[in-house]
Amino acid sequence: MDFETASAAEFGTTLKGLGLNLICRDVRASAAFVEQVFAMRVHRLSADFAIVTYADQLFQLHSDGTYHSNPYLALLPENPPRGAGIELRLYNTDPDTAAALAAALGYTILQHPTDKPHGLREAYILDPDGYAWVPSCPI
Q1: Would strands 132-138 and 120-126 be described as parallel, antiparallel, or unpaired?
Q2: Dist. CA 111–CA 130, nearest whole Å
Q3: Is the pTM value of this prediction over 0.85?
Q4: What is the rounded CA–CA span in Å between residue 44 and residue 135?
Q5: Within a 10 A sphere around the Cβ of 79, how many other Cβ atoms?
Q6: Predicted confidence (pLDDT) per residue in 57-84, tens digit
């Protein structure tokens, strides 16, 4: 499927399995974060929406405004961080490289790359909305 030209209905009917949708104050800023820090591909970028691909997986970014009639909007906090309570784990993504890029770009490193007892080296990096991205790879 061509993410750049597919209609919303065509795109929607192809979604399967587990879906991930991040509600963002600034879709463009969130898209820049995942592109710059994790080299993800961003498609259909606008102020309101983006499709993001990471390897063969995809997820979506939506602005608050696109949720105007969605009941979830009332639960979003006015003050950051928004993403408290969720970890977005990127397995087989080098945490040292990602943390270095994120730090150079001014993003918050919540935890620098660390070897963990469960066999992974991980870092915790916060995006502009406070979502915790956890790049990791086997030790």
Answers
A1: antiparallel
A2: 14
A3: yes
A4: 25
A5: 6
A6: 999 999 988 878 877 777 777 777 777 7
